[in-house]
Amino acid sequence: MVRGKSSWQLFSLCLLCSVLLAVSLSLVPGGRSVEAATCWKAEITAQWTDLGLVGSVLRVSVEGKAGLPVTVRSLGGFEAVGFTGTKPEYGPYVAEFAPLSKGTYFIEPQGLGLTYELWLDGRNYTRVDFRPVPCGATPTPTPTRPTPTVTRTPTRTPSPTPLTATPTRPLAPVSGWQSRIVQHLKQLPGSYWATVAVRVIGRPAGQEVKIQSDSWTATCKTGTKPEHGPDACEFGGLRSGTYRLAPVGLGVQRDVAVQMGDFVLIEFYQTGAEPTVSRWVGSVVKNTSGSQPTEFVNSAIAVVVAGKPWHEVEIRANGWKTAALTGTKPDYGPDACEFAGLRAATYTITPKGLDASVQVTMDGWGWAMVRFDPVTVPAPRPTASPTSRLQPTPSATSRATATPPTSPTPGGPRWKGWVLSNTSGQQPGAGVWSVIVVRVIHYGGWPVTITGGGGWSATCITGSKPEYGPDVCDFAGLWPGTYYLRPEGADIELEVYVDGLGTAWLEFAHP
Prior knowledge:
The protein has a four-stranded mixed beta sheet with strand order 1-8-2-5, with no helix packed on it. It has four domains: 97 residues, Immunoglobulins (Immunoglobulin-like); 99 residues, Immunoglobulin-like (Sandwich), CATH 2.60.40; 100 residues, Immunoglobulin-like (Sandwich), CATH 2.60.40.10; 130 residues, Immunoglobulin-like (Sandwich), CATH 2.60.40. The chain is mainly β.
């Protein structure tokens, strides 16, 4: 009996110890940190072009994880696996993949629960860093219909809800900020996570935008996603759910529901303060062509007309022209087309009926991406009659080049332009921080185009830099080189050299 009782006591003691051990393990802080460490973010931390490459070089770092398998896949079926820490010359957690041909790639480190998508043009070095971030609450999947159980904190400008609108709803203010969804593409092929891009029309680059879902929040700054426009930023890697977007300090917000693989473009714009117009603005987002032509006939130009699938786009050069329809090149999105097999030349890209075009110079081998986006801006109008002023003597680094007048009145008044100042030296520097500030005197909402070496071009709208004045915009982050600037419809352009560090101030006077 004594021995039997001792065995039962021993069994009971072991059982109690097992229970206590299980409970203690569940309370170990280390167990919770492992779960929190599954929240990661990825971003491109370095990227530069090397025309001598025969394939892109991709370097991937996963912070704190040496020896981790990383898989890289492409839409064309390519797949490769590398291990972090195998390229210690670039960091203790770096893996390298090369050479990679032009295309879309997906990077997936093992066990992180995160896949990062990026485009490589076959002639650049790119580094992507994966870093752990604090975990927020997982966004709740959005139901297919609005439900009365969803509650929102009252805001100054609630999102429109047509199903519940009533006559007692307050009218919109005479002057204030509003929002609209410009584009909502659902379940794009090759896209796993959802993406929300935001434009803040009329505000200078650097405007902070906040995204929120339950207790999770993040911010981005406009001007960081030029492929969506000069005043855009983007939130990627989003799960299905409802998100609230709000430009900080503007008193406006917008709720949007997304599913995995969706892309949404939201615009915030000011109304009532002054007349506005909608313009299409074209820009060269990327061009890998060099400054010298080659004998090859391998250049290609991809064209995106935002939100307009099956829209006709014309390309022409030296008397030759052809056309294509957007939507025929889904590799770049549902509103894209591509012109391939191009020799060295300067091409003019014109979407039909949008009153916008872009020129891009190809070397016969490089690849370019051109975008056309709708932009709402203040209507061009004089703010006052020009007063007499002492005009500075044009700088030695500038020139005015006459072109055939666009005015319907032959021999009419001509544009004038001059360089107020330029802090750049005569030798190129080591930076990519030059800025060119442009003023079209007394005219806000006026497009100004800049072009540079290799056929690169971009457009800014005067009035988008109110800290300098109501008729000013700028181009920042410029490489050393010579640039040409022309307001829309002007019969002159100004040439200005910047060294990569200096700042130039230009003015144009409308006749």
